[in-house]
Design brief:
By secondary structure, this protein is of the alpha+beta class. The protein has four domains: 124 residues, PAS domain (Beta-Lactamase, 2-Layer Sandwich), CATH 3.30.450; 117 residues, PAS domain (Beta-Lactamase, 2-Layer Sandwich); 102 residues, no CATH class; 140 residues, Heat Shock Protein 90 (2-Layer Sandwich), CATH 3.30.565.10. Strand 3 and strand 4 form a beta hairpin. Helix 14 runs antiparallel to helix 15. It is elongated, with a radius of gyration of 41 Å.
């Protein structure tokens, strides 16, 4: 310490005077020994009177360079222009203490983020004779705090931090957008301002219970939670709670997700399911009534069979439409792709029943017509350019029983889809050939070939993880045959299916 603020009075007894001097010396040694804090005293005008080693280390000024100068020398030019040094002393004089976190400037012009505490010093009569200043470099804390704020701002949901009293201390932009408040209207307010009036008392109880057992948990499953916007409207939400223990105290970090669209989707899903149940119930009643009416003669039974095929086709189209709705709700990811492939399989089965509905023979499918329609449908659904990939058909007339036609149709669908997906990557052009051949009236040879890139060298297609090829192998086994592959000049997959069960 460079100077004494209050030198001992001459009226004090010598022994007492020596004791005071000894205490002052100890105090100077203690303050000078503090290296991490700038500790100095100022007169009533803010001129520096004492300067410890920590102040020299932190600000870069030696005592003889700063003592007698106004402490505003440590402020930034913009703070000096805004008269912040004078205001800080005024607050300290009025309240006894002033504390803030603010930028300070070193002798070399560099800045550091500082925690500053200014204390008013008064004599026993209450008269102000100066100020004490304790300054600490908290730049590292600022950096950590700023990183935490940036993480909150980048979060995909609303984030609110609440202290142990239930007061909001931090929010992100998602919260501003969700509730319609600017953050300055939220910080410092009780969290219950965002809770509808009818839930506030219960919310205080839940908050107290959480503080009694602070652990991460999720709220919203199985019950309705709502937030209250500034305009008085309510929004359904899901909330995740995470306790935070810091040097400043205990806090709760809440993530808040707006589930309005999810609720709307759930209601739409329930409506569609109810509609489907109604359709099915009506269909059941109609089929039962028609069955009772038409069971008497063969002609009426054939009409009933036609009606059933029609209804099955319609139900499959309803299922395809529901899948299509789900596909549109998903992004361009694996889930969407899987649903699209599932939809084409349903459509392939529906096409069989459409052909039966249009046919006079309700037990057998004109499979040659079906194959042409299916191949064209798959090409159209995948959006293939006819200038890039050509479809070639070599189809003989053949009819199949329904139990043979459905698996054959699925095999044809999978093989054409597989060729379009894998054989002509990176804009490669070529031809896909679909062949149906009647083998001596006893079997059907179904083949799909392409002149594309071919199977990768060394690939064992029997062990391929492809769901489509797994389905083809399973259906071939169901038809008492096996899937064959020829890799000459591209790839050719084929099955030879007995027309009748063995």
């Amino acid at each position: 310490m460079t100077r004494e603020a209050n030198p001992p009075s001459s009226s004090v007894a010598p022994a007492e005077n020596a004791l005071i001097a000894n205490d002052a010396q100890r105090l100077r040694l203690l303050v000078d020994g503090v290296k991490d804090f700038a500790i100095f005293m100022m007169d009533v005008d803010g001129k520096v009177e004492t300067w410890n080693a920590g102040a020299e280390r932190l600000a870069g000024y030696k005592a003889d360079e700063i003592v007698g100068a106004n402490f505003a020398r440590l402020h930034t030019p913009e703070d000096i222009q805004a008269a912040k040094p004078r205001r800080a002393l005024a607050v300290a004089e009025k309240d006894g203490r002033y504390e803030e976190e603010i930028w300070r400037v070193r002798k070399d012009g560099s800045r550091f983020w500082a925690n500053v505490v200014i204390t008013a010093l008064r004599d026993p009569s209450g008269k102000l004779f100066g100020y004490g200043n304790v300054t600490r470099d908290v730049t590292g804390h600022l950096r950590a705090t700023e990183q935490f704020r940036q993480a909150l701002e980048a979060a995909p949901t609303g984030m609110i931090m609440v202290d142990s009293r239930g007061r909001i201390v931090l929010v992100n932009a998602h919260v501003e957008k969700l509730f319609g408040y600017p953050r300055e209207e939220l910080v410092g307010q009780p969290i219950e301002m965002l809770v509808p009036e009818r839930f506030r008392e219960r919310h205080r109880d839940h908050r107290a219970a959480f503080l009694g057992d602070p652990r991460s948990r999720f709220l919203g499953a199985g019950r309705d939670l709502f937030g209250l916007r500034k305009d008085g409207t309510e929004v359904p939400v899901e909330i995740g709670l995470n306790p935070l223990r810091t040097a400043e105290g205990h806090f709760v970090l809440s993530s808040i997700a707006d589930i309005t669209e999810r609720r709307r989707g759930e209601r739409e899903h329930d409506r569609l399911v109810d509609q489907l149940r109604t359709i099915n119930a009506e269909l059941e009643l109609r089929v039962q009534g028609r069955t009772a009416e038409l069971a008497a003669n063969l002609e009426e039974r054939e009409v009933l069979l036609q009606e059933v095929h029609h209804r099955v086709k319609n139900n499959l189209q309803v299922i395809s439409s529901l899948i299509g709705m789900q596909v549109r709700a998903l992004g361009g990811d694996a889930s969407r792709k899987a649903l699209e492939e599932c939809q084409t399989r349903v459509q392939a089965i529906a096409l069989i029943h459409e052909k039966l509905y249009q046919s006079r023979d309700y037990a057998r499918v004109a499979f040659s017509e079906y194959a042409r329609s299916l191949a064209a449908s798959v090409f159209h659904a995948t959006g293939v350019s006819p200038e890039g990939i050509t479809l070639e058909l070599a189809i003989e007339d053949v009819a199949l029983a329904v139990d043979r036609a459905v698996p054959c149709g699925l095999i044809l669908n999978e093989l054409i889809t597989n060729a379009l997906k894998h054989a002509f990557r990176e804009g490669r052009a070529g031809t896909i050939r679909v062949e149906l051949k009647n083998v001596e009236g006893k079997a059907l040879r179904l083949a799909v070939s392409d002149d594309g890139a071919g199977l990768p060298a060394g690939l064992d297609f029997e062990k391929s993880p492809s769901l489509g090829l797994d389905l083809v192998r399973m259906l071939a086994k169901q038809l008492d045959t096996a899937l064959e592959v020829d890799r000459t000049g591209g790839t050719c997959f084929s099955v030879t299916v007995p027309l009748e069960r063995r």
